[in-house]
Amino acid sequence: MAATQPSPDERDSTLRHIITSVLYTIVSVVALGFIYPVVIWGIGTVLFHHQAGGSLVVDKTGTVIGSELVGQNWTKPQYFAGRPSAAGKGYDPTQTGGTNYGPTSKKLIDGTKSTIAALKKANPDATGPIPMDLVTSSASGIDPDISPDGAYYQVPRVAKARGMTVDAVRGLVAAHVTPRQFGLLGEPRVNVLELNRALDAQGAATK
Amino acid sequence: MTIVGWLQAALVFALVCLLVKPVGTYMARVFEGERVFLTPLLGPVERVIYRFARVDASREMSWKGYAFAVIAFSLVSFAYLYALLRLQAFLPLNPQGFGNLAPDLAWNTAISFMTNTNWQFYSGESTMSYLSQMAGLGWHMFVSASIAIAICIALIRALARRQMNTIGNFWVDLTRSCLYVLLPIAFVGALLLIWQGVPQNFDAYTTATTIEGAKQSIPQGPMASMEIIKELGTNGGGFVNANAASPWENPTGLSNLIELVCIFLLGGALTYTFGRYVKNQRQGWALFAAMTTLFLGGFIVAYWAEAAGNPAIHALGVLGGNMEGKETRFGIAASTLFATMTTDTSCGAVNAMHDSFTALGGLVPLFNMQMGEVVFGGVGSGFYGIIYYAILTVFIAGLMVGRTPEYLGKKIERKEVQLAILAALVVPVFALIPAGIASVLPAALATLNNGGPHGFSEILYAYTSTVNNNGSAFAGLGSNTWWNISTGVVMLFGRIAIMVPVLALAGALVRKQAVATTAGTFQTTSSIFVVLLIGVILIVGALTFFPADALGPIVEHLLNLQGKVY
Lengths: 207, 566
Fold this sequence. Notes:
The complex is a heterodimer.
Chain A: H1 14-47, H2 49-52, E1 56-58, E2 64-67, H3 106-122, E3 145-146, H4 148-162, H5 166-175, E4 177-178, E5 189-191, H6 192-206
Helix pairs in contact in A: 4-5
Chain B: H1 3-31, H2 39-53, H3 63-87, H4 103-114, H5 130-160, H6 170-196, E1 206-209, E2 215-218, H7 224-232, H8 253-277, H9 281-308, H10 311-314, H11 331-344, H12 359-370, H13 381-401, E3 406-407, E4 410-411, H14 414-438, H15 442-445, H16 452-467, H17 481-510, H18 527-561
Antiparallel strand pairs in B: 1-2, 3-4
């Protein structure tokens, strides 16, 4: 700390404060608003090219079929479905968000009732209780994951639609469970896009 | 509740505790202009900034000079962002071709980021150009956080100094906070986040053709550089609408851990910086202990309530904790921890939708804010908030024994107590009165997403969040002109009407001489002080807000148990 005698500046004019503020805004916008994000972009792209570009998933023909990070709207019975989504008409990544229904919301309870009915109708051979994540909407509306229980619950339906054995589909699910990071962080989960791609790949291999 | 859930919370807090001393020491050295390991790199940059902005770094300011500089810079930064948002359609880095923001939304957003609130009445992914995000909102995240840190350091100086007139130079404190504190941590953190999957690019949105043949437009952008400062500066404004619940901003358990540690890091470390300045670390640890207790209490209640789940859903035969508005990869523990920490501080980032929490689970974030966000708090603002409470505590303790109260060897007299009371009144006045008006105003009620008591909770939460400059929301609440303007006004008072009294307090304290410690001096490092401080915080928060909370979350909890719906 400089040992200079401090001099109060109460006589400084308002204009001087404004001028300093304008100049300071200019120089700090250049540093923090441009140089910083661009440098992060440069280094990030070199070190982690795939992630910096949005973790896109590309098929054999080079077409982008989605992102590892973004869930999709699965409607066909031969695919595992994701959670209910409040993003646009379902899994619209440009309209992310949850239902924002409170615990006493009539819309929440009615919606859950019809989700339960639809799940049971589509999957009559399922055993055990319906997992919570399959009847609740995610926060982002584009949750790419379901819980392992949520995947196992859907196995009878998928196996039937594909003419595969239940054990084969269960084995595939088990192979696609992402454990907690370092055994501690996050929750165990199944990335639905990866699982469905693996299903398709297996179907192609057996043909 | 699971053991893994408790361990996740324990790990986050252990990391914060480990970092408090090194980061706190580092900040004390930085703000006193001592040489640190980054000085060779950042010293030249610092000097360029001073030269360009014509700052005389050797000159200190009185509290009035400091306050004028804060207000002038806030005003200019507001005008800059307002102009940017109104003109973004004509500016570059707008690959999606987003239009200009309407005047009331631009006003609300510019105030929101200027005041470190980051309340968002827009969806980033369908509203903001990359230029607005990085050079407007992202820049504000650095400077609005640094303004609060600068004021906090000025107050700490005032507490440490004896019989002086000046409290530091605002421009120097601002610059050092941005350059030496926020930027290096953000730099490393942003790269870690990219490693975990957070995008950082300037591409147009990617159009994907899904396996089932549908088209999906996938947002891109410079997200990682903004994401990290959003937590580190306790700003909270998401790049996209779903904020840190979106898999772009927060893709993994590790990214969640990094973001959580950043939310508490500087608020916790500033208590250590304070201890260094006043040459008694136990003074800092006493505040840290009070904060820790309040944090743990909130987390335990929220975790219990969310793990218990919603009885109305259980009645349908689906059992388990409340997963509505939560992400699979975080589950209940990490979502509740995030909700607790983001409202203990003035962060307001969310990784789950608070609106869909159970009634009691949602009461915890609400009450955390009602206490004034002093549990680690916003960077800088949390510390000066708890100093207000510390002054009230020694004042009340002094009344009990009939002695003039002292804090850190300075006599606490009429002026200091008046300023502390004034600050304590700002939050209830600007939260409860607008909430009362909005509860009967058709224009306000028109955008509620929920009926019954939960609708009232949405209103109460909105003004509690904005006056505390938090920015998290019961996000079902929609935007219209009433909400844009009224929350804008509330955010402004919540910032300025707390900051200016802090600086006045600093101006009063810095002049005082030290009085000798005697056997009768109330020790502000004792556990009795910590308990009293916690009591004062809880009582002030509870007494002012309990009637309103009873009409919202508390009655909703009772109705939920009876199976009532709205």
